[in-house]
Amino acid sequence: MNTLSGEQLINPIAKPDVPQELAENIILTSLNDVYDWARLSSLWPLLYGTACCFIEFAAMIGSRFDFDRFGLVPRSSPRQADLLITAGTITMKMAPALVRLYEQMPEPKYVIAMGACTITGGMFSTDSYSAVRGVDKLIPVDVYLPGCPPRPEAIMDAIVKLRKKMANEDMRERGNLQQTHRFYSAKHEMKAVAPILTGEYLTAATRQAPPRELAEAMGMPLPALKATEKETVDRA
Q: Which helix (H) or strand (E) holds 143?
């Protein structure tokens, strides 16, 4: 211990010695590192799939690839999930539902755009009127996973890259990286028309009972005729 004129120094120059029993049981880190480590070690993906890419995602859940080793627990509710893998083509009819699912997920949440269809529209980008040309027009994307479709190994690689990104994040800066502009709907000048299929045809008389000629030809039992119907048959 350094002393000066018989007094003990408050800040000694020598490196303090940590006892061996404390060095093996105490970990010094920051709260932000513990927060990031807890999140990247327990990603809960949402069971969401719209096309053939989900078959590869489902294969990754199986015993051959076993993505549970990463702490991933698939959830069926968006309120319990923090990872959304857009596995499959996103159409304009599905776009509002996708945005609704994303907004129901708690913060912080992450998105992996899986497959060429979700990144650029894929094979449907040239002659399809309903495919969304890039899911990043709807929700913010953290990792892009190209392929048609990507294999389960590629999905695991994308999750590893996402975990590295999460490890370098600061909890205070996550809100500054959110996407502010979303274009999943557009104004149109279409006019609403009356529906064609109203179900009224099910109550038609020909649906309730077949014509008499058809029933006689098929040997079906005929209901008893009323007096007016008998006169009509006799005159015929």
A: strand 143-145
